Amino acid sequence: MSSPPFAPATFWWGTATAAYQIEGGNENTDWWRFETGEDSFCAEPCGPACDSWNRWEEDLDLVAGMGLDAYRFSVEWSRVEPERGRVDRSALERYRRMVEGCRDRGIAPVVTLHHFTLPLWVADAGGFEAPGIVGWLGDYAALVADALGDELAMACTLNEPNIVAAMGYLAGLFPPGASDQARFVAVNEAMRRCHEVMRDALRAGPGDFPVGLTLSMAEYEAVEGGEATLEAYRTEMEDRYLATRDGDDFLGVQCYTKHLVDANGLVWGGEGELTSMGYPFWPESVGYTLRRAARAGVPLVVTENGIGTDDDAQRVRYLEGALASLGAARAEGLDVRGYFQWSLLDNFEWILGYGPRFGLVEVDRVTFARTPKPSAAWYAERAAAWPEGPGARLSG
Ligand code: GCO
To answer: Are 164 and 122 in contact (CB under 8 A)?
Structure first.
């Protein structure tokens, strides 16, 4: 197995998106069915999203215009393998052009293989509870490796497998809409096996790039006797993943806020300033989660952090706090190799539809015209100046 080409001096400034949230038209997925079913409680369906399947060049121009080092986006499995064993080469070709489009613009392409959605054939066969899931994801990872591997700068196997498990099998808010503690635990276990097989498949293909998974992390605070519940929940959400990362090249940390936990579980909301997601404005969660993540013993990358808000000045204030928190963690000696703001575009926020706006760039819901917000210029300037300055960074 080749060693990861993650030079210690590397620090990437980037922004992130996910296929389903921006491409549009991903009908052949469990999420599409979840949103459009008669009993759906989703705010609205995804529909054309940001039309990025057609406008990806414009998206890459926006990233390049900000002078960022890296762009994290995802490949949609349902496009690549619409039915078991049937590979759509034209979809892989399109993703290949995106990866090359990054390179042409001096942007390091960071690709996620699974970001929340499953092809219908997988969902119908039992999704992450299907006996075949590990092998299917391994085969899919091999396909992506063959098609893109020689040009990749970094790969994330699974995005927030713990959120897929928690929201889909415990809270009932993501497909398949289940609420069952034992299934939540079993899916987390299956996820860890899937990751390993995907990681090995990516490493066996062309190219030489760091491979890891991304984990949803948060600052948790016990209220009203919630200590034991907090420990049990965090063990499942974070600690079992952190304890098993030694074969990886990095861990992606994704953090947004602080959650209160009482004896019954998560208490949504909180006192004080909230974001449009309804949870606390808490940029300090970046440093907090990085310090916890350090126990994984591998280099860390903040693969997502940002804020859903209609007030762009609040976004700048949030990012300011987040970067200060990141800087403090690095100054303590934490090995952090990059920061990816979530998100480039105002996009589809799952059950909340197009309500919460995480973008540095506004997207007109009718014309899909992209308009950078002041926070885009602010972030570009900050990334260029902080802390090492241009030239100390690696662009690919
Ligand atoms: C996540 C997600 C994104 C969300 C973001 C904001 O990984 O949770 O990757 O899909 O849009 O976190 O809630």
So the answer is: no
Query: Residue 349: CA atoms inside 13 Å, Cβ hemisphere, count?
Result: 18
Q: Is 103 part of a structural domain of the chain?
A: yes
Binned at pLDDT 50, 70 and 90, residue 396 comes out as very low
Count of structural domains, the chain: 1
Band (pLDDT 50/70/90 cuts) for residue 149 is: very high
Mutate-to-test residue for ligand 1 from 163, 342, 343, 349, highest number of ligand atoms within 8 A of CB: 342
Whole-number Å distance between alpha carbons of 160 and 165:
9
Pair 119, 76: CB distance under 8 Å: no
The residues lining ligand 1, judged by C-beta closer than 6 Å to any ligand atom, are 18, 21, 159-160, 163, 216, 254, 304, 342, 349, 358
Q: How far is the CA of 105 from the centre of ligand 1 (A)?
A: 26
Beta strand 250-262 pairing with 265-267: antiparallel
In this model, does residue 390 exceed pLDDT 80?
Answer: no
Query: Distance from first CA to last CA of the chain, Å, rounded?
Result: 21
Q: What percent of the chain has pLDDT over 70?
A: 95
Contacting residues for 71 by C-beta, under 8 A, at least 6 apart: 14, 15, 16, 17, 60, 63, 102, 107, 108, 109, 110, 344
Residue 204 resides in a domain: yes
The CATH number given to whatever domain includes residue 82 is 3.20.20.80
Distances (CA, A) of 6 to 34, 171, 248, 249, 251: 39, 37, 12, 8, 12
Say if CB 160 and CB 216 are below 8 A apart: yes
